[in-house]
Amino acid sequence: MHDKNATILVVEDDEDVRRAIALWLGASGYNILEADDGRQGLAAIRAKRPDAVLLDLRLPLLDGFGVLAALASEGGTPPPVIVISGQDEIEGVARAFRLGAVDYLQKPIVSFDLLSHALAAVLEREHLSRAVRLAETRYFNLVQNLPLLVFVLDAALEPAFVNKFCRPLFGFSRTEALATPGWFAARIHPEDRDHVTDCLKRGFAPHERARTVESRFLHKNGSTIHALLRALPSARTGNGGEPAMIEGIVVDITDRVELERFVVQEEKLKTLGAISAEVAHEIRNPLFSIAGFAHRLQARMPDNREAGIILSEARRLEDILDKISNYLHPVDLRPRLCSLAAIVGAALDFLAPEFAALGVEVVSLPAAGLPDLQLDPDLLTQVVTSLARFAAKRLPTGGRARLSTSRHARFAHLDVVFAPARPIADPEVLFLPFEEGDERLGLPLAYRIVKNMGGSLTFSEHGGEAAFTVQFPLGAPHDAPPDDPDDAADDDGAEP
Fold first, then answer.
1. Calpha distance 23→10 (Å, rounded)
2. d(CA 303, CA 457)
3. Of the four, 26, 253, 302, 322, which is 20 to 30 A from 93 by CA?
4. Mean pLDDT of the chain
5. DSSP state, 188?
6. Which residue ranges form the domains of the chain, and what is each CATH number?
7. DSSP 203
8. What is the DSSP pairing of strand 224-233 with strand 211-218?
9. Which H or E run contains 194?
């Protein structure tokens, strides 16, 4: 049996031999192409892409060896070549096999049944090879385009393979990841690194089971990524000469973790907000009575110190109630498309003299390819300014804060990360309008602005670092960043 649609190219300078082969092949159902010298044969292969080639080694202009060498140098997958040779050309046949020929027929061809079997076998092998290559390509493309990191690590935990999701997850191209010693371990958060690397190394032990750990990783811009790492012991045992490997995946769960944290904080703030509104209502009426009494008392007794104190405290309580009312009042928004990275950069430029006077450094780490957001740029600038000022005032002299933008799934993130000189007191009430003075530097208003723009603002502490995280939805996924050229260049020939 053979493929009735298969096209066979016969490259033979002897017209009688060529025509005899062509007539038999045509009668057998094959499509036939003919060439009488090596150059014509090579041109026909390039232009027509036949399914198989019958190639004489002795040809004018360009012999069969030249044709085979040219096909080998062009790359890609050339069609299978069966060489036709006389009895005195055995050394030449061996050379032809080294150049890529797949079979050999002795000339003159005395049995076309032999030719039929040779062609059928070659075409069947080629069909199977194409099926294998197609399966490998589909598998590779699937692995490359999964929305999670796929990795293979050697015994030193150096990456032997990472897929293209390396860039959206960590900010590194595949080329950077594979070329940087210690890259994978360096991406694990320092506080989780020992535990995760120990888990990975245990995977090299015989009969070890797959393990899943929740861990934090570090983006190129310094922001924290929460992820699930699934490590699969390699099928390679290392006993057959191939080194043992650890294979696995990293799934980004940052949005889930931050949403859970946000929900908890939101419930706390709702409770405190409801209490504050009730307190404001219950206090305001008696406060007016107390203030009125203090005014009358002070009018009658101008030198009475107690009356002045009562009046001053009444004014202070009134200011607090006004803050609560303003906090609960809707924000007037004027949204338009704006760049989060540009707003961060402009705010830091404006605040640069303040940071210099404090003796601290505040830097912007923008993410490439982050789309514009439909937000109020003036109010968003106010938010960034408040968060940056708070971080700068909490830094020790010579300290450094990072404002990094990043993309996680369908959300844009702004992370304000800093190491405060002392722990933040009462972080649960950072966004509530109770306190006086500038200690919190507009955080309640920043929280209210972000919430009214459809985003979330959370505060967290990990080890010695504190962080504000602002999150806004990006909308439809059509604005996903394009493939990186380095990643595309890595695709050829790279296999997981």
1. 11
2. 49
3. 26
4. 80
5. B
6. 7-143 (3.40.50.2300), 146-252 (3.30.450.20), 256-329 (1.10.287), 333-496 (3.30.565.10)
7. T
8. antiparallel
9. helix 190-202
Closest CA relative to residue 200, chosen from 247, 235, 149: 247
**Would you say 298 and 314 are in contact if contact means Cβ atoms under 8 Å apart?**
no
- H or E element, residue 149: strand 149-153
- Name the band, by pLDDT with cuts 50, 70 and 90, for residue 43: very high
pLDDT digits (tens, 9 = 90+) for 405-464: 988 777 888 999 999 998 887 777 787 765 444 454 578 888 888 888 888 888 888 778
Tokens matching residue 348:
């830091």
Among 313-317, 340-344, 348-352, the least confident range: 313-317
Here the tokens at position 422 are: 């002392």
Give the burial string for 27-64 (b: 16+ CB within 10 Å, else e). Answer: ebebbbbbbbbbbbbbebbeeeebbbbbbbbbbeebbb
With residues binned 3-state (H G I as helix, E B as strand, rest as coil), the percentages for the chain, rounded to 5, are 50, 20, 30
pLDDT digits (tens, 9 = 90+) for 160-207: 999 988 888 898 999 999 999 999 999 999 989 999 998 888 877 767
Q: Sign of dihedral through CA atoms 121, 122, 123, 125?
A: positive
Burial class (CB in 10 A: 0-12, 13-18, 19+), 196: buried
Q: What is the pLDDT of residues 348-395, one digit of tens each?
A: 999 998 999 999 999 999 988 889 999 999 889 989 999 999 999 999
For the chain, first and last CA: distance in Å?
A: 36
Pull the structure tokens for residue 399: 């300290």
Burial state string for 382-419 with b = 16 or more CB within 10 A and e = fewer than 16: bbbbbbbbbbbbbbeeebebbbbbbbbeebbbbbbbbe
What's the sign of the alpha-carbon dihedral 163, 417, 331, 327? Answer: positive
